[in-house]
Design goal:
- The protein is mainly alpha-helical.
- 83% of the residues lie in helices and 0% in strands.
- It has one domain.
- The longest helix is centred in the middle third of the chain and has 37 residues.
- The radius of gyration is 21 Å and the shape is globular.
- The termini are far apart.
Length: 248
C-alpha cells in the first residue's frame, strides 16, 4: 500500500524536476558566464579582434550573420554578460541596417527561450497560486492581466529595466507566448536602433582609441522620445482608469 502511495509522488517529483531543468540550466550558465566570460565579452575584446571579424564577414557573409545571431541568442537565453556588446557588434559588422534587424531577431529569440524556460519551471504554478490567492496579490495579478499589452511594452521602452528582468517577469504572471514575442520584438526596436547605430560608428571610435558612449540612451534627445513611448504605452491604462471613475 505504501509503495502505491509513494509512486505518484516520485513521479510528480520527477516531472517537476524535468520542468525546472531548463531554468536550472539557465541559472547555472548565467553564474558560470558571469564568473568566466565577463572579462571576455566586452568592448576591449571587440576592439582587439575587429580586423579578424571584418575579414571573416567579408569572406563568409551568410555564415557570419548566422554565427552572430546564434551567439547573440545564447548570450540572451543564458543571461550571459555582453548583450550590449553584442548589439554594438551587430552594428559594427552589418551597419545600422540590416544590423538592427539581426539584433532584434536574435534578442527576441533569446528572450523567448528564457521566457519559456522560466514559464515551464515556475510560471504556470506561480500564476495559479496568484489566481487562487486573495487580497493584494490577487489585485496585482488582475491588474497585470487587464493591462498586459501596456505593461509589456512599458518594461521594454524603459531603459532602466534590465533586459533579463523584462524576460522573466512576464513568464511568472502567465503572459501568453504570442503576446510576449510581439511586445518584445516591437518593444526593443527603439533601443536596438540607438545601440546598433552606435555600433555602426565604432570604426571611427576605434581609430581615435576611444570607447563608445553606452549612456547615449539617457541623453535628452534620445531619452525624451523613449519616455514619450512609455507615456503612450500607459495611455490605455489611464483611459481605463478614467472610465472606471466615470462609471462609479
Amino acid at each position: 500500500m505504501s509503495d502505491m502511495t509513494n509512486t505518484p509522488n516520485k513521479s510528480d517529483e520527477k516531472s517537476m524536476l524535468q520542468k525546472r531543468l531548463p531554468i536550472i540550466v539557465v541559472g547555472i550558465a548565467a553564474i558560470l558566464g558571469f564568473v568566466f566570460l565577463r572579462d571576455y565579452l566586452n568592448f576591449e575584446t571587440l576592439s582587439n579582434n575587429r580586423e579578424a571579424l571584418i575579414e571573416f564577414r567579408d569572406a563568409n557573409y551568410i555564415l557570419a550573420v548566422l554565427g552572430f545571431i546564434a551567439i547573440y541568442i545564447m548570450i540572451v537565453a543564458f543571461s550571459l554578460p555582453g548583450a550590449a556588446i553584442a548589439t554594438l557588434t551587430g552594428g559594427f559588422l552589418f551597419a545600422t541596417f540590416p544590423g538592427v534587424l539581426y539584433n532584434i531577431i536574435a534578442a527576441t529569440t533569446g528572450a523567448t527561450a528564457i521566457f519559456m524556460a522560466a514559464r515551464l519551471g515556475f510560471g504556470d504554478r506561480l500564476a495559479a497560486r496568484m489566481e487562487a490567492g486573495e487580497g493584494l496579490v490577487k489585485k496585482i495579478k488582475d491588474g497585470i492581466d487587464e493591462n498586459q499589452w501596456s505593461m509589456l511594452f512599458l518594461i521594454r521602452f524603459i531603459p532602466a529595466v534590465p533586459f533579463f528582468v523584462a524576460n522573466l517577469v512576464p513568464a511568472l504572471v502567465d503572459v501568453p507566448v504570442r503576446r510576449f514575442v510581439i511586445s518584445t520584438f516591437f518593444g526593443i526596436i527603439p533601443g536596438s536602433i540607438v545601440y546598433t547605430s552606435v555600433g555602426a560608428g565604432l570604426g571611427e571610435v576605434f581609430a581615435r582609441g576611444e570607447t563608445p558612449n553606452l549612456g547615449i540612451i539617457f541623453e535628452p534627445h534620445i531619452l525624451l522620445p523613449m519616455l514619450g513611448l512609455c507615456a503612450l504605452s500607459l495611455l490605455p491604462v489611464v483611459l481605463k482608469a478614467l472610465r472606471g471613475k466615470e462609471g462609479i
